[in-house]
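testing teh design pipeline on a random one, pls ignore if ur not involved
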C-alpha cells in the first residue's frame, strides 16, 4: 500500500488572513509531502502489511523496532496533517452547530471556556507537537497534547479537532508568537467536521 499526499479541501489562499497562503503551501507541499514520502519508504523497507493508516497507528505493537519509530514519526505526520487540514475551513464556514455547542457545554462551563482550555494546552505545549480535542475510552470529551507526531489513535483516543503547534506551522507569519497563531486558528476551525467526527465516534 502506498499513501498519497491528499489535495487540500480548499485553495492555498482560502484561509487568509488568518492562515497565510505561503505557509499553507509550504506546510502542505513540503512538510506534509515529506511525511508521506518517508512513511512510504518505511513501509517499503519493512515490507509492512497495511490495510489503512488508522489501523497501522492503532496497532503499533505489530511493527518491529526500529521501524516502529519511523511509523510513529512519519505515519503520525501523514495522518495528523490530513486530519489538521480537514479540521480547517474558510472563515464563512466556521460556526459551531447546536449539537456541537451542547456537547461542549456539557463538559465545560461554556464554549469559550472550552476554547480557553484548548488554547492554554496548545500554548503550554513544550517543543513540537499538537493540541487535540478527543473522545476518550469512556466516550467523554477531553483536551490532550501529543509530542512530535504521536497520534491520539495510538493512545486509544478518537481525535475530533487538532492544532499543529510545530514552529513550521506558523513561524513564517507569526514568528515566535504562538499565542497569535492559536488565536487566528479559532477563526478557521471546521466545526462541521468536528461534529461529524463526534457523531461517528459516539456510535462506535
Ligand atoms: Mn505541521
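output:
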Amino acid at each position: 500500500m502506498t499513501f498519497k499526499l491528499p489535495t487540500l479541501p480548499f485553495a492555498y489562499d482560502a484561509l487568509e488572513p488568518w492562515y497565510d497562503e505561503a505557509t499553507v503551501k509550504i506546510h502542505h507541499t513540503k512538510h506534509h509531502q515529506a511525511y508521506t514520502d518517508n512513511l512510504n519508504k518505511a513501509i517499503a523497507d519493512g515490507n509492512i502489511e497495511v490495510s489503512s493508516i488508522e489501523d497501522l497507528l492503532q496497532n503499533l505493537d505489530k511493527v518491529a523496532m526500529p521501524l516502529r519509530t519511523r511509523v510513529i514519526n512519519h505515519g503520525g505526520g501523514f495522518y495528523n496533517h490530513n486530519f489538521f487540514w480537514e479540521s480547517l475551513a474558510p472563515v464563512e464556514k466556521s460556526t459551531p452547530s447546536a449539537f456541537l455547542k451542547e456537547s461542549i457545554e456539557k463538559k465545560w462551563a461554556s464554549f469559550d471556556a472550552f476554547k480557553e482550555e484548548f488554547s492554554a494546552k496548545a500554548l503550554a505545549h513544550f517543543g513540537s507537537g499538537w493540541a487535540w480535542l478527543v473522545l476518550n475510552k469512556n466516550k467523554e470529551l477531553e483536551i490532550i497534547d501529543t509530542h512530535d507526531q504521536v497520534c491520539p489513535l495510538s493512545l486509544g483516543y478518537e481525535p475530533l479537532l487538532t492544532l499543529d503547534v510545530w514552529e513550521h506551522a506558523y513561524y513564517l507569519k507569526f514568528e515566535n508568537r504562538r499565542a497569535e497563531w492559536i488565536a487566528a486558528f479559532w477563526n478557521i476551525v471546521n466545526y462541521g467536521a468536528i461534529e461529524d467526527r463526534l457523531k461517528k465516534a459516539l456510535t462506535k
